[in-house]
Write a structure and sequence with these properties.
This protein starts with a strand and ends in a 7-residue tail after the last strand. A 5-stranded mixed beta sheet has the order 1-5-4-3-2. A hairpin with a 5-residue loop joins strand 4 and strand 5. The chain is an alpha+beta fold. It has one domain: RelE-like (YaeB-like fold). Helix content is 29%, strand content 33%.
């Protein structure tokens, strides 16, 4: 599966400390292999958008009609409204 990361998601990744960043990076790479891992959830009302919790962060991603996966953002905090 083709994997894209938006510029805004890339900028968010730059702000994450090294320890969780390693887990988040591995999870993003694994999403390209399996975009629907255990723990991923479909966002209601937003077609094709999913999120996956990793440590205290949420990876927000979209799967388009061509099968490409785009990371839209990496959101900080266990109490983010997505949860």
């Amino acid at each position: 599966m083709k994997l894209n990361i938006t510029y805004s998601a890339y900028r968010e990744l730059e702000l994450i400390p090294q320890a969780p960043l390693r887990n988040i990076g591995e999870a993003i790479i694994q999403l390209a292999e399996n975009p629907y891992p255990p723990g991923s959830s479909l966002l209601q009302g937003i077609g094709g958008c999913y999120y996956l919790a990793i440590d205290d962060y949420y990876i927000l991603y979209h799967i388009d009609d061509d099968g490409a996966l785009t990371v839209l953002g990496v959101l900080d905090g266990p109490y983010h409204p997505l949860h």
